[in-house]
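From the thread on structure requests for the teaching lab: each student submitted one protein with a one-line request. Submission from student K.M.:

"Model Chaperone DnaJ C-terminal domain-containing protein from marine sediment metagenome, tokens only."
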Amino acid sequence: VKSPTPGGIVDLNIPAGSQQGRKLRLKGRGLPAKPSGDLYISLQIALPPADSTEAKELYERMARELDFNPRQHLMRDIKQDDHIQARS
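Reply posted by the TA:
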């Protein structure tokens, strides 16, 4: 993935399984100084739009075949909050 930095465009290798909000450090790629600082990049995941029949079918197939619930952590957090409130 190409990304702009103060020193120009760099090619980033995004680790597999990276999630929204993960921070990557680019050592020595921050503001120019002696020595240059580090640049921190926060990942923002963007999916291509499903604006064609083929794209919609692909997304639907992925939803059927992949065991993935993007809201699973929310239920865990709610249960923990309920547990905390019950003890109060």
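TA comment: Helices lie at 53-65, 72-87. The longest helix spans residues 72-87.
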